[in-house]
Amino acid sequence: MCLIIHKPQGVAIPEDLLAAALTLNRDGWGLMGLDAGGEVILERHADSKLKAILDALERHGDAELVLHMRQRTKGTESIENAHPFKLAERLYLMHNGTLDITRPVAGRSDTWHFVQDVLRPLHQNYTGLMADPAFLRVLELALKPENKIALLDGRIGRIAILNRQHGAEFEGLWLSNTRWIDRRLLPLVHTPQAQMRSYSADELHFV
Q1: Strands 168-170 and 158-162
Q2: How far apart are CA 115 and CA 117, in angstroms?
Q3: Which bin fits 132, alpha (ψ -120 to 50), beta or left (φ > 0)?
Q4: Bridge partners of 40?
Q5: Are 81 and 28 spatial neighbours (Cβ–Cβ below 8 Å)?
Q6: pLDDT digits (tens), the chain, 207 positions
């Protein structure tokens, strides 16, 4: 699994939320968005450090952004599996969930294969498909509630969230899930999924 945070323009992501998410999602991070001039903002990192994320958010100020914090389930911990993934020029995708998909390339994640083997060929054959609301609705239904996708289309200046209704609102932000926000560090009141938590060394007992 992972966590996606959608940050509208003018809204800040609290540091305590980032710290609580990073505890359980430390296998890479990335962000995408649009600056005031409509140019695409894009970063991908295999190394997960709180200061680096905070610095990136400060650099991009009030821009509308989507942040992805990865928890590795399929595929290696590497820059190749960090989100966002490029579908085409000015078209990028982030995913939270697990896809039941064949993964012939060793070490690459389910999302990488979904982009490479399914969505990119579709886009190449039908250029306007990723901007078609009807297609996005069909894709949303096919993904099922446990999978969320953030799609940045720099050609039309839009960020679309698929299965948004199955996420959570928090202080003006949208969270793809609440499961992977450490409840020991940041207990939330309204949680669509029960929060997991980390444990300190003195809380662990082996029998």
Answers
A1: unpaired
A2: 6
A3: beta
A4: 34
A5: yes
A6: 699 999 999 999 999 999 999 999 988 999 999 998 889 999 999 989 999 999 999 999 889 999 999 886 765 677 888 999 999 999 999 999 999 899 999 889 889 999 999 999 999 999 899 999 999 999 999 999 999 999 999 999 999 999 999 999 999 999 999 999 999 999 998 898 999 998 765 665 555
Contact status, residue 76 vs residue 28, Cβ threshold 8 Å? no
For residue 149, give both structure tokens: 């996708």
Q: How many CA atoms lie within 13 A of 48 on its CB side?
A: 24
Q: Which residues contact 141 (CB under 8 A, 6 or more apart)?
A: none
Q: Which two tokens stand for residue 66?
A: 């989507």
The set of residues, in sequence order, having a beta carbon less than 8 Å from that of 88 and lying 6+ positions away, is 120, 123, 124
Cβ 66 vs Cβ 158: under 8 Å: no
Phi, psi dihedral angles at 97 (to 5 degrees): 140, -165
Closest by CA to 4, choosing from 134, 162, 171, 157, is 162
- On whether the CB atoms of residues 52 and 59 are closer than 8 A, the answer is no
- Position of tokens 């690459």? 108
Note the residue count of the chain: 207
pTM higher than 0.85: yes
